[in-house]
């Protein structure tokens, strides 16, 4: 039995210590947000927050999570009352198949919690590890910019193009 | 034109029954019915597409699949527009071999053309029937009946809900061609409807086949050959069968899969399984340079002229200036961000499979053949996976799940892993 | 009487010394180019571009997020921080007014156009060995780059190292000017490789240990050294690699950043191999031939590579074994697709066989990531996934599992150092 603190709640999970967090979230805790995309830390569909930092849950064994705080998209509000990022993604209709989106939102959440006024270049570099196969990138960026503004900040244009 | 109801006929006319012992008269040889739009032509009965329950609940059926292109929302929008109901009052059922028309494969941006036009016209037909039923009920002219907000409204203010109207008519009738579109009232088509599925996807709601959890469900992974044409030489399952959580190692012909109680146990077991394959008959080119050389030198299986207008060669020869440049497009994996996933519940005499196949009816045929069951006893239900871009038009997760489940006679959820997707054909 | 002679003698002696020092340290300013827009042969510019990649000029002369060659990148040295200069052809803030002669003097002698002595953080002690045609090509390339207005921040050097004329003494001791004479007993390719390695590629700049004055110790050439938190391993008979570095293996590694018989290029070598990927193929081959010859008889590579001792390591480090199984095995264990596609076993890579655990820890913490938009060996960063204790445990586990060497004695301290962002 391993203790996992997810979205503020402590759970006893009956899984082997080497089980990556993703499978504990999806199968033991029945949380749908984080997704299996590659299982190799290369697509970001499994992205959650661990101690406020984005992490590939497919590569994070639960044995490493004893004192750590895990947050998934389920912690960002509900369908009826979505948080800033989910609401922005809905408003911008920023999803095609939507499979990557929960990972995108958690990744963006980490940035906006740390820096509510990132530059455009910082935003794009931060989101780079998460892939979207449908090509929804422009809407995703619009949604994050919208959420940043809604949270009292905003994404700034860079003074000159970064290379 | 008022509809002829039973009451009218029996009250005002006579019933004469006749039969003939001779062959059909000329006039009874069916004339070829004029074509109906889209797939309505193949499935002309209105209740193949639209049903209205006595309580007013409207269900619209489509044989197409929501792949993230927003199809569910669009078809609801079309039906709601023509039926003059709020979109939220429509339940849309997507491809399900037990319930929906067989509209083939969802591909090629054809869904609005095939299914959208069918539903639009079916809805127009239904609208006309509802209008006529109301008009008959109130004994007013059809033109005086207004439909909006899920009800028919009389000039004097009376109204009848669609549910009640539905009990007065049958939708098990063929659609008529050239039924006019609704003229009056607020239009939905041409407005921006938000997608009905995005909110669930951004709040952790169940949205994909990967989110399905059935009681007693086990997990499976398939072990694939390293390349096309590789044959299975040996499979040593002894160590893996003893791994904790492993239920069974399935081996049938060239198919090798592991089943386990948890997904992680299945992944580990699949990795640990010692399988020996023969060398693939086809070697993929080692790098991009070799790939282009291979493509240029290999003989095509089929050449096809799509369009020919005028004389290209002579026109080019007469050009003042001509430019020639090779353009090479990098080869991308025909992959999906969410590997193909299916759930199979196989009993000895029937099977149900949920998967993201773009062609559920074709999948059903294949699965029924492999299970040696009649098609009617196999049900394939489309359930959304990640966007597939044609990769699931040649879907094999469904077949794999079936294989695994059949070995267990039970329910298995099978996820292709990313590496298998690369190697599977 | 004697006292006065002594005083006079001392004064004259001191004057003589000062005069000599002045003579040595003073360099004239070359005149600025009046009209800095010469045209260059495109073939020479193209050659210069390849040489610039080989020498990785952009690697130092580009700040993070800055324009290429516009300078501003801080280089940490034991003497303080030196900021790289703008070598775009901007007339005011770059080298736009530098004549070819001034450029040659900078590379060969470490002297700027205005006569200032340059800090050997700019490895002119290597570039001095470059050939005339190569320097000409570099000049042509740099003078045809887009000009960028950018002034480097002022260097932050500890006293008295801010006093440039002192460098004259350093040069007297450590600068051996001019191209090297060919070794007649070696092939043309080998000699070209040596000329490049000692010259533009300045490999010793990272791989040769330095003395207290910051100069490379020529008696320990390529014996390994520390750079930016990484240990650059020996490239000579002391190479710890457990598989031989043949010229083919080395060429593949330098050219692609990945060796199928060793490991991927990590840390600063990532940037180096990305540059070498765009250099002349013959030049990279030559460098590979040279270093393969230096490492040809390294004892570490003579025996068979170590086996995977999974069971032993699992028993000794059960917690780390679980962490490895969940975090690493998915790519690095036998059944993984990466392994089936010919990636090398962890046992073959050099980091686990070095005397220091530092590089192993760095790779786990930082991962491998090519720059955005480019492809290359990729590994997620695990720095945020594991605690210091877990990192130390995994590091010890890897050493036990994939090497035949004794355990590292100082793993927790090494982890702490890496976390601090420093090196030894």
Helices and strands in order, then pairings?
The complex is a heterotrimer of chains A (163), B (425) and C (424).
Chain A: E1 2-6, E2 9-13, H1 21-28, E3 47-50, E4 53-56, E5 69-71, H2 84-91, H3 101-114, H4 120-127, H5 137-150
Parallel strand pairs in A: 1-5
Antiparallel strand pairs in A: 1-2, 3-4, 3-5
Helix pairs in contact in A: 2-5
Chain B: H1 6-12, E1 50-52, E2 58-61, H2 71-83, E3 90-93, H3 111-138, E4 146-148, E5 151-153, E6 159-161, H4 162-166, H5 198-201, E7 218-223, E8 232-236, H6 238-241, E9 246-252, E10 255-260, H7 263-272, E11 274-277, H8 288-297, H9 312-317, E12 341-346, E13 351-355, H10 360-371, E14 378-382, H11 397-408, E15 411-415, H12 418-423
Chain C: H1 2-25, H2 42-55, H3 57-61, E1 74-77, E2 80-83, H4 100-109, H5 124-127, H6 132-143, E3 156-157, H7 167-174, H8 188-198, H9 204-207, E4 225-227, E5 230-232, H10 247-256, H11 268-276, H12 281-294, H13 310-316, H14 318-327, H15 329-332, H16 337-340, H17 358-366, H18 388-402, H19 411-420
Antiparallel strand pairs in C: 1-2, 2-3, 4-5
Verbal overview:
By secondary structure, chain A is of the alpha+beta class. Chain A contains 5 helices and 5 strands. In chain A, strands 2-1-5-3-4 form a 5-stranded mixed sheet, with helices on both faces. The longest helix of chain B is centred in the first third of the chain and has 28 residues, at 111-138. Chain C is mostly helical and 424 residues long. Chain C has helices spanning 2-25, 42-55, 57-61, 100-109, 124-127, 132-143, 167-174, 188-198, 204-207, 247-256, 268-276, 281-294, 310-316, 318-327, 329-332, 337-340, 358-366, 388-402, 411-420, and strands at 74-77, 80-83, 156-157, 225-227, 230-232. In chain C, strands 1-2-3 form a 3-stranded antiparallel sheet, with no helix packed on it. In chain C, strand 1 (74-77) and strand 2 (80-83) form a beta hairpin. The longest helix of chain C is centred in the first third of the chain and has 24 residues, at 2-25.
């Amino acid at each position: 039995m391993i203790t996992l603190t997810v979205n503020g709640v402590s759970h006893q999970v009956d899984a082997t210590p080497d089980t990556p967090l993703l499978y504990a979230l999806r199968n033991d805790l029945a949380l749908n947000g984080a997704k299996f995309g590659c299982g190799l830390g290369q697509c970001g569909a499994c992205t959650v927050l661990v101690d406020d930092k984005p992490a590939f849950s497919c590569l994070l064994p639960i044995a490493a999570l004893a004192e750590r705080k895990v947050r998934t998209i389920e912690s960002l509000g509900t369908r009826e009352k979505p948080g800033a990022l989910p609401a922005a993604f809905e408003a911008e209709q920023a999803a095609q198949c939507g499979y990557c989106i929960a990972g995108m939102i958690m990744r963006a959440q980490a940035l906006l919690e740390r820096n509510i006024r990132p530059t455009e270049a910082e935003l794009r570099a931060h989101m780079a590890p998460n892939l979207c196969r449908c090509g929804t990138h422009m809407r995703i960026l619009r949604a994050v910019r919208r959420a940043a503004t809604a949270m009292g900040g905003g994404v700034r244009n860079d003074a000159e193009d970064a290379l | 034109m008022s509809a002829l109801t039973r009451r009218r006929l029996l009250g005002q006319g006579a019933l004469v029954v006749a039969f003939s012992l001779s062959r059909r008269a000329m006039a009874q040889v069916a004339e070829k019915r004029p074509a109906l739009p889209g797939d309505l032509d193949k499935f002309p009965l209105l209740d193949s597409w639209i049903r209205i329950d006595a309580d007013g609940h409207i269900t619209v059926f489509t044989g197409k699949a929501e792949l993230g292109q927003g199809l569910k929302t669009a078809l609801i929008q079309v039906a709601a527009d023509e039926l003059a109901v709020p979109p939220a009052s429509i339940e849309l059922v997507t491809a399900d071999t037990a319930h929906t028309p067989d509209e083939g494969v969802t591909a090629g941006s054809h869904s609005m053309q095939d299914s959208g036009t069918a539903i639009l016209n079916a809805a127009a037909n239904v609208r006309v029937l509802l209008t006529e039923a109301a008009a008959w009920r109130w004994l007013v002219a059809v033109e005086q009946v207004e439909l909006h907000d899920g009800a028919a409204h009389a000039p004097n203010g009376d109204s009848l809900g669609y549910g009640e109207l539905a009990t007065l008519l049958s939708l098990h009738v063929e659609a008529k061609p050239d039924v006019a579109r609704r003229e009056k009232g607020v239009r939905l088509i041409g407005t921006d409807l938000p997608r009905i599925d995005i909110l669930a996807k951004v709040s952790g709601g169940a949205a994909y086949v990967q989110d399905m959890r059935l009681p007693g469900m086990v997990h499976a992974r398939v072990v694939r050959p390293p390349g096309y044409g590789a044959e299975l030489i040996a499979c040593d399952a002894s160590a893996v069968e003893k791994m904790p959580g492993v239920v069974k190692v399935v081996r049938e012909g060239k198919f090798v899969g592991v089943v386990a109680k948890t997904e992680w146990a299945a992944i580990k077991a699949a990795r640990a399984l010692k399988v020996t394959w023969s060398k693939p008959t086809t070697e993929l080119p080692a790098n991009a340079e070799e790939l282009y050389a291979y493509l240029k030198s290999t003989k095509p299986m089929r050449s096809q002229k799509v369009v020919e207008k005028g004389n290209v060669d002579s026109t080019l020869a007469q050009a003042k200036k001509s430019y020639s440049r090779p353009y090479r497009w990098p080869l991308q994996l025909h992959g999906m961000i969410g590997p193909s996933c299916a759930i199979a519940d196989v009993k000895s005499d029937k099977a149900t499979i949920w998967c993201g196949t773009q062609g559920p009816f074709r999948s059903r045929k294949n699965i029924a053949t492999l299970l040696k069951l009649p098609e009617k006893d196999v049900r394939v239900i489309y359930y959304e996976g990640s966007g597939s871009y044609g990769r699931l038009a040649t879907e094999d997760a469904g077949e794999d799940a079936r294989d695994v489940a059949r070995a267990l006679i039970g329910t298995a959820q099978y996820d292709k892993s990313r590496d298998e997707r690369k190697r599977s054909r | 009487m004697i006292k006065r002679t002594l005083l006079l003698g001392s004064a004259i002696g001191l004057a003589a010394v000062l005069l000599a020092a002045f003579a040595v340290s003073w360099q004239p300013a070359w005149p600025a180019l009046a009209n800095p827009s010469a045209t260059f042969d495109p073939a020479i510019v193209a050659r210069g571009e390849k040489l610039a990649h080989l020498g990785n000029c952009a690697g130092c002369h580009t700040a993070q997020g800055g324009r290429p060659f516009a300078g501003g990148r801080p280089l940490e040295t034991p003497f303080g921080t030196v900021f790289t200069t703008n070598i775009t052809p901007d007339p005011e803030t770059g080298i736009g007014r530098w004549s070819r002669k001034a450029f040659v003097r900078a590379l060969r002698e470490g002297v700027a156009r205005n006569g200032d002595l340059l800090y050997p953080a700019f490895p002119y002690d290597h570039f001095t060995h470059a050939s005339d045609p190569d320097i000409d090509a570099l000049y042509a390339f740099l003078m045809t780059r887009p000009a960028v207005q950018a002034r480097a921040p002022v260097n932050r050097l500890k006293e008295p190292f801010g006093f440039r004329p002192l460098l004259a003494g350093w040069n007297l001791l450590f600068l051996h000017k001019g191209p090297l004479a060919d070794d007649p007993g070696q092939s043309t390719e080998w000699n070209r490789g040596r000329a490049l390695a000692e010259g533009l590629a300045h490999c010793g700049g990272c791989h040769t240990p330095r003395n207290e004055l910051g100069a490379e110790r020529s008696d320990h050439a390529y014996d390994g050294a520390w750079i930016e938190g990484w240990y650059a391993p020996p490239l000579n008979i002391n190479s710890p690699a457990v598989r031989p570095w043949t010229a083919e293996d080395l060429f593949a590694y330098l050219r692609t950043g990945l060796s199928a018989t060793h490991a991927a290029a990590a840390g600063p070598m990532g940037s180096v191999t990305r540059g070498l990927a765009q250099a002349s193929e013959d030049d990279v081959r030559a460098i590979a031939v040279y270093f393969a010859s230096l490492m040809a008889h390294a004892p570490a590579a003579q025996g068979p590579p170590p086996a995977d001792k999974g069971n032993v390591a699992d028993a000794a480090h059960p917690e780390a074994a679980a962490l490895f199984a969940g975090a690493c095995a998915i790519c690095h264990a036998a059944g993984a697709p990466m392994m089936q596609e010919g990636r090398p076993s962890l046992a073959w890579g050099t980091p686990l066989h070095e005397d220091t655990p530092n590089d192993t820890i760095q790779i786990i913490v930082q991962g491998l990531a090519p720059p955005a938009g480019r492809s290359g060996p990729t590994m997620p960063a695990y720095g945020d996934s594991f605690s210091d204790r877990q990192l130390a445990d995994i590091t010890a586990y890897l050493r036990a599992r994939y090497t035949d060497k004794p355990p590292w004695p100082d793993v927790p301290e090494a982890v702490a150092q890496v976390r601090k962002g420093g090196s030894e």
